[in-house]
């Protein structure tokens, strides 16, 4: 009996991890530290039992979309059992996506440096259940060294391949990941097909964010009800947040689902009176005012809730202009498209140009109308969700900084207190 199956932990035998579930083994944990903190990885049982535990946990993806984890797993299991795919070689493919092309995010990099064995455990548990023949950890080159070191400590993980992802915003989009693994080009492909049924080389493919796999490893050990001991009924468990911007120090925090944004900022040492607005979810996220705002995966179920998305919390202090910052981000996003479809190729640069004019005070009321017109032409029409995320960011800026818009149309900036 090997070290990974020597015993079967349960919720009752789970260590008292508190909120810091994913970093309980300490910084840059070796496998022995990992085992001391969490115990060995048990036999996950059959697909039905594993799927039931995931469903009971309520775990949602931590990469941005927040999709139900058990549903993705169930789709791959269904494809595997019914063989509704063309298997060129082997069984299902599992991918831990730590590409993190989002410029403000570094939570997955932190996880892979400190707790790579949890990500490995999640892959191994699912591989046993699904009969997977290929496993990949797809992440930036800077994260490959700790991943490779962790894999070297695990003979059972010899089938897991570390792959360096390109440093591009869209490199972590699911179809772009599969395309890169097949062709070396990290570009999104036709969204009509389901990767769960026909992904990498026609095989059922399960792609989860690296953090999601780490949570799966804990659910495999302690069960779904244990996972729900933290968080809220609608947003159970914990999640990692990358805290950036006007903060004492940029850091990664682990917080329960449904956390108050003001509480998160306080944990990062940020004074409430020092904050103008916060960008939640990253460049495809939303600008919000922190007072009373809840980070909730349902996002929008209540007027005060916002989806955490990719786990980015970017703080903008007083004296900085939200419209100018948004214009800068939209310009970046326009340059980071795959340039494969009209909404990205033409629509995003046009939106970036109009937002730049608005931020610079070059134009009149027609600028806002033009933003809305272009947004309607772009949203929902791209080959991937890149245009949609960009439009969401813009609309949140126009809403959150609505009081600043008339000032900019008059050639002045309220935030900086002067002429543009």
What does this entry show, briefly?
With 420 residues, the chain is an alpha/beta fold.
Structure description:
The protein has helices at residues 31-38, 47-57, 69-82, 107-114, 116-130, 144-152, 174-183, 210-222, 224-227, 261-267, 322-335, 342-360, 366-378, 386-400, 404-409; strands at residues 93-98, 134-140, 160-165, 205-209, 238-245, 251-256, 275-280, 286-288, 294-295, 305-306, 312-317, 412-413, 418-419. The chain is of the alpha/beta class and 420 residues long. The chain folds into 3 domains: 31-227, Rossmann fold; 238-317, Ubiquitin-like (UB roll) (Roll), CATH 3.10.20; 322-419, de novo design (two linked rop proteins), CATH 1.20.1440.230. The strands form 4 sheets. A 5-stranded mixed β-sheet has the order 6-5-11-7-8, with helices on both faces. Helix 5 packs across helix 8 (210-222), helix 12 (342-360) runs parallel beside helix 14 and helix 13 packs antiparallel against helix 14 (386-400). The longest helix has 19 residues, at 342-360. It is globular. Residues 1-8 have low confidence and may be disordered.
């Amino acid at each position: 009996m090997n070290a990974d199956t020597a015993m079967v932990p349960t919720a009752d035998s789970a260590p008292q991890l508190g909120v810091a579930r994913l970093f309980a083994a300490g910084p840059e944990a070796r496998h022995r530290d990992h085992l001391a903190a969490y115990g060995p990885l048990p036999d996950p049982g059959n697909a039905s039992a594993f799927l039931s535990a995931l469903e009971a946990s309520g775990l949602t993806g931590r990469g941005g979309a927040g999709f139900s984890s058990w549903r993705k797993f169930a789709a791959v299991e269904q494809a595997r059992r019914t063989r509704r795919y063309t298997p060129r070689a082997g069984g299902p493919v599992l991918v831990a996506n730590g590409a993190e092309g989002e410029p403000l995010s570094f939570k997955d990099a932190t996880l892979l440096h400190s707790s790579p064995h949890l990500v490995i455990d999640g892959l191994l548990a699912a591989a046993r259940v699904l009969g997977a023949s290929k496993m990949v950890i797809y992440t930036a080159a800077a994260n490959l060294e700790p991943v490779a070191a962790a894999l070297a400590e695990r003979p059972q993980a010899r089938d897991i391949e570390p792959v360096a992802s390109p440093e591009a915003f869209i490199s972590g989009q699911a179809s772009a990941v599969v395309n890169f693994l097949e062709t070396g080009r990290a570009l999104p492909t036709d969204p009509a097909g389901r990767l769960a049924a026909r992904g990498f080389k026609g095989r059922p493919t399960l792609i989860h964010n690296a953090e999601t796999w780490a949570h799966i490893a804990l659910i495999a050990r302690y069960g779904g009800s244990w996972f729900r001991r933290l968080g809220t009924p609608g947003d159970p468990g914990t999640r990692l947040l990358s805290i950036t911007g006007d903060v004492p120090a940029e850091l990664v925090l682990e917080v329960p689902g449904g956390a108050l944004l003001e509480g998160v900022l306080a944990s990062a040492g940020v004074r409430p009176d020092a904050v103008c607005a916060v960008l939640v979810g990253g460049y495809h996220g939303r600008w919000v005012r922190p007072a009373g705002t809840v980070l909730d995966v349902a996002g929008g179920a209540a007027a005060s809730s916002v989806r955490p998305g990719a786990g980015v919390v970017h703080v903008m202090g007083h004296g900085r202009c939200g419209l100018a910052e948004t214009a800068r981000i939209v310009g970046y996003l326009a340059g980071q498209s795959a340039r494969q479809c009209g909404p990205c190729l033409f629509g995003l640069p046009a939106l970036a140009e109009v937002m730049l004019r608005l931020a610079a005070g070059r134009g009149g009321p027609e600028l806002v109308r033009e933003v809305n017109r272009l947004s309607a032409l772009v949203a929902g029409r791209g080959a991937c969700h890149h245009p949609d995320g960009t439009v969401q960011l813009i609309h949140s800026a126009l809403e959150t900084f609505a009081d600043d818009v008339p000032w900019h149309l008059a050639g002045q900036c309220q935030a900086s207190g002067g002429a543009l």
